[in-house]
């Protein structure tokens, strides 16, 4: 008999032996946990699979490389080409993917049908109170939780089959297996309970069990839908397993038959050919070496590298980091592992006070989470107290402090003061975090700055200054990003988990499910929409970086712009870059607006559903009014963290793109480092010995070949040769900008690789061809070589470099600002400042790279005399193109195409009549021709002055002068013309000879310095 609304009948129990009660328990518990178990399995499985499959993208080096401050850093590895194969599970084609999508869609539609059947049956029933409060088997809370949760879960699975480009994987297989097991349990329990008349599915006063209609129309619909779902889930599992078995069998057959793959080498199982073998036929008939065997060999002998001179003719990767045009398709694990490199620089491990600050901040964050939970609960208490006070007043009682909820209001006010980022707890946390944040920023930026200085010359030769500066400026972005993760993202996730738990404990699984479904779909939609615009954001970031680079390059090249009157061109180029950035920025902003609209719709849909359900329960008397306010307050309070996640996800993308540059910069390692057993050089006499040194910037084009020579202490060695012969490369090896690939360089009999880099460089002074100065005073630049030097020592060094008197003529003398890179000084002045700095350093070895090339003849001779005086007792290495400046050298080494072709003193090399003698003769003839040409031009100018007027009287003075000089002077046109022609002819012949020899040398060498 149907009960009325006020007195609902007690729930009907099963038979006496209790089997239906056990079946009912199994049915209800399975319905409660079915969707939750599948969701947890899918999320954890997907996370595990992304971590496992991430190893396919790159080789993971052990973090044995030390970064700034001795922190471990992994070596950067380039991505392997993705061959489309998976480590676990088969690969599916388009047809197979569509079949999986069709079967998954049917499973989802069956749950839509179950939802329609359940709600149709519930609202068709004439006693809403009963199924609302008491719960019937077909409309109870457990059934609603199961049907709605499963509907949304299988909808997400269906979406994933479209999102994941490789189709279903092992995670889907695990979910389908668990889903099939759950459907079998639900179908069996429903059938057993129905056959035992455990379901009273009557809409009339008639008892269903007495009418013999235990398995009624609605039960049959449920059983049919259970069967259809189980059948399609079985089909999904079978199709996946068959494809997997087929892949395993096909792979085994290919291995047995020895089929080649795309990675199989074409020539003798080796992809590395020497110069001698790549153009010659091979007579080796051995089969290609299997891939696994090659991998084992390369792994077991990681240091097995070929000599450069005979190495593989492959192009070396650039040393400077690249700038990707799109956002790299990396997994969350790859990003987390990459950003974990920054953690050692951010944690204040050396300051106990800051560590205490950080721990207190973490404690305040936890306390803030508890306050967030207490506020909605206290709002419910205030509403319930007000409702009780209203009833008391309506019943005629007077309103007093006893029945007014003043205490609840006081507690609520205190919680409001503590709540929020701007509340008392949040403000205290921000205050304590200030020194920690500053310490993190200081540690990260200084580490990046020091790391750039620690990188080798190959990086700095190929870098773009604007790009490096842009990467260094990302330290604040990384610091802010990690701070947001610590104090906003992690607390947000904790708030979501805590709210779901509170809903489950206080208000039942239905509200917990509403909150969970709404949160999951909000996050999924946010991530999906943001990831689809990742390339747009990357395009905007690249455009911004390009704008900064153009601005930096243009301003730093101020004089060049003025030389060519290119102001309008530079302005147009900069405007184009700004327009490109703004176009990309507009696309990103429009995408953000659309995302905000979708986020608002999804969140408010869940909030409306929860408010309606709770309102219904309040209306039928199941809950109090305060419960409705509590639930709505909880959901409204969650809007803040969820909205922040939408904003933060965009911030995460921006931080990942920005920090990616700094991350890649951190992962670049110097190519020249101290070996573990390196020792300081200590006392050094100045003896240098090169033993068969070979080196190449590009393995296809060696720069040095078997270079050998020896310099005794206190001697002068000059290096000459055509451009590209290897002179500057030799100097770079002396200063240990590079390490040789073959041979050895010894200082006092010790290999430089066994000495620390800093100690070697402390004994070497360099005067480069192009001197760069800091934008500071002259005194600062001079003392840069020796900060402990006194002013008097600086004056003496400048006097030795013939620059002291010149500096005293400046208005500010030694405090004169030299400008950017020393542009306020002339080339000769900068060169003399560089020589003075080298004198202040007082090294045992002085290297002069055409140090006087920017000076006039008189100053050059003066400085040369001073340098020879200063160089007494020191080893001098000189690069010179003016052979007349190195005639006094103890030995002259002639380099050609990276090889030592001649060696000896000036007189010995002239007597040998080789390349040096040819260069000397060429320079002498060119100088004679130039002198003769200058003399002829002077005589021609005199004659033109003499014959410029048509009257004799106008030239009396010139004629008399010519007569006094005698007949040997150039007073006639024929003699002047003859001298000019003779001078030009000698110059032309010398130039032809020079061009012929240089062309022949270039053909043989093909290298550049």
Write up what this structure looks like.
- Residues 967-980 have a biased composition (Low complexity).
- It is a multi-pass membrane protein.
- This protein has 1009 residues and is mostly helical.
- The protein starts with 18 loop residues before the first helix and ends with a helix.
- 28% of the residues are buried.
CATH architecture of the domain at 332-667: Up-down Bundle
CA radius of gyration: 43 Å
Largest sheet: 6 strands, mixed
Approximate strand percentage = 5-15%
Task: Walk across the major sheet and give the strand order.
Answer: 8-9-10-5-11-12
Helix tally equals 33
CATH homologous superfamily grouping of the domain at 332-667:
ABC transporter type 1, transmembrane domain
Mean pLDDT rating: 73
What gap, in angstroms, lies between the N and C termini? Answer: 104 Å
- What's the multimeric state? single chain
Helical content (DSSP H or I, runs of 4+): 55-70%
Please name the CATH topology of the domain at 332-667: ABC transporter transmembrane region fold
Shape: elongated
Low-confidence stretches: 1-20, 56-85, 200-212, 260-327, 948-1009
Characteristics:
single chain, 1009 residues, mainly alpha, Rossmann fold, six-stranded mixed β-sheet, four-stranded antiparallel β-sheet, disordered C terminus
